[in-house]
Specification:
Number of domains: 1
Strand content: 35-45%
Low-confidence stretches: none
Order of helices and strands: EEHEE
Shape: elongated
Distance between the termini: 23 Å
Largest sheet: 2 strands, antiparallel
Radius of gyration: 18 Å
Length: 60
């Protein structure tokens, strides 16, 4: 299976003219379109065949 979830953090820091910093958590989904039926099997919020919270239609 090639599909995966990636997690990480974006950070920024500034020293001048005044100190400032922030960090954001993020995640990205890498989906192999040939694996949609396998990846979404048994997931009720994700689907490739019916309307759900995250519906990835092949026609799109």
């Amino acid at each position: 299976m090639h599909s995966a979830l990636y997690t990480g953090q974006i950070r920024h820091r500034r020293f001048a003219p005044c100190g400032h910093a922030f960090a954001y958590q993020l995640f990205m989904v890498w989906l192999d379109l040939a694996e949609l039926d396998t990846v979404f099997r048994g997931r009720w919020l994700w689907s490739a065949t019916r309307p759900t919270f995250a519906w990835l239609r092949r026609a799109d």
